[in-house]
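Write out this protein's structure.
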Amino acid sequence: MNIHTLKKFASYINSNSKLRLIKRIGDNLFYVNINGEIFYFDLSRGKSLIFITQESLISSKSYNAPFDKTLLKLSNSTIIKAIAEPNNRILKLYLQIQNSYKSQEILMQVEFTGKNTNLIILQDNIVQDALHHISNETSFREVKINKPLAELSPLKEFKDKDEGELFYALKNNFEKLQQNLLSAKKLKLKNKISQKISQINKNLSSLKNKDDLEKNAKKHALYGHKILEHLHNFSNFKGSYIVLDGLKITLPNNCNNLSLAAQIFFKTSKKENKKAQNLHIESENLLSKKEFYKNLLELIENTHNIGNLDIIDSNLSYKHKSKKETKTNESFFIEGFKISIGKNSKENIELLENAKADDLWMHIKNIPSSHLIIHSGKNKIPEIIIKKAAELLVSYYKGYSGRYEVDYTKRKFVKIVQGANVNYGKESTIVILKD
C-alpha cells in the first residue's frame, strides 16, 4: 500500500464521519462502507492495499468467527478521526460506538505492513480482537486479546510516490490486483476442471459393454442352477472348482460351500443384469457431468470477476456431507447460501422434489433450461445473492449473448405438471445481460 495514497485516504475519511459497516468477504478481504461509499481492504500478506470497484464483490461463504462478531459491533459507529502514520503503512480509525447504555471509544488499526499485515481492534491500547493473533513465540510483537500492543518501528525505506487523485489511485489498485490474480485463478480452476473431465473420460471408457454384462449374468445364473441341481450329490464337497454336466465351475474366492456358492452366483447375476439395464443411465449421467464442466470452462474463460471465480471454486471444493444429499446436482455457495443447479431433466425433477417450501426457485423465462434452487429455508435472501444466482444460471445456459429474463419465486408456489415442466405464480423477474 502506497503511504502517500494512505495519507490521502485518511484525510478523505476525516471529512466523512460514519462507518456504516465493515465485514469480511474473504479470508483477508474486508468490505467497508463509509457514508455510503464502498471501499475494500485487502490484507493479504505481502500485497495489502485499499481499492474500489463498481463490481459487486461477495463471498462464497459466510464469516461468523468471534472476530467477525466483534467487527459487526463497529457498525454505525462515528469516526472521530483518521490518521495515517507518517512513516508507516498504518491506518488508525478512532471510533465512537454508542449503545443503549454508554458510549465507547475504540481504535481500529489497519496495518498494511508486509508480513505484519493485520486488522487490530483496541481499547486503551489493549487488544480486543484481531484478524491475526500472534504469540510472542513467533514474533517480537505479540498480538493477543487483553494484552497491550507494542508499536511497530517506522519504516527505514519506503516509496512515497503520489499516485494521483485518491479515487483514481484506489480504482487503479483494483485493476492491478485483477491483472495479477485473475489469470492465476483461472489457470488453477481450469486445471481442476480438466482433471475432473479426464476422470469422467476414464469412467466412460471403463463402462462395461451391455452385451458382455448380460452374457455374464446368464453364465452366473447357469452356474447357480447347475449347483442347485446336483447339490444333493455333494454333501461334503471340498474344493475350489467343480465339474457338472461337463461344465467346469470355478467357485468364488474363499468359498468351498456349494450352497453358498450358488447364492453368490445368483446374486452376481442379478447385479450384472441390473447394471446392464442401467448402463445407459450411468453413461448419460457421466456425459451430462462432462458437458457441465465444459460449460464451466467456457464460463471461466469469459469471467472477469474474482468473486465469481471464487463461487465457481466453491462448487469444485464442495463435498457432500450426507448420503441423503444428491450427488448429481451441482452446488455452489454465495455468502453461505447453497445454490443448486440441475444439469438435465432428471436432476431438475430431483431439485423440485427435494427443495423446501420456502426455498427460492429460479428459471430462465420462456426458455427450456436448468432449474435453480437457493436453499434458504425461512432465511431472507439478500438481493445481491438473488442477482448472483441469476447471473450464474444464465451463464451456465449455453446460449446466445444478450438480454435474459429470470423468474424466481418460493418453491411452494411452483407446481410440477409433468416431468420437469411446471406452472408457477407470485414470481418476480430479474433481467440479466449475458456477454
